[in-house]
Amino acid sequence: MKLKKIGAVLSICGVAALAAPGAEAKGCIRGAVAGGIAGHAVHHGVIGAAAGCVAARHYYKQKAKQEQQQQQMQHQQMQPQRGAPAAAPTPAR
Fold this sequence. Notes:
By secondary structure, the chain is mainly α. The chain is about 75% helix and about 0% strand. The protein is built from three helices and no strands. It has helices spanning about 1-20, 20-40, 45-80. The N and C termini lie far apart (about 90 Å).
């Protein structure tokens, strides 16, 4: 009985990992493991794994979005303002 549950959880993790790119796959696998362990404690390992996968994917997706926004802000701060007057060169003596 336990082997069937473990097999089902691993199958869900495998399918989710193949379907989700990059950070989402990492989040899904981590969440599924944590959710599966928590769900196993209350005899609902498969449901816990699925819920953990969804929750972790959401978390990592939000985290990636925030990092992308921070990078854009830094990139914008490093570029000179367009349309702003340039500093006048000092005359050579």
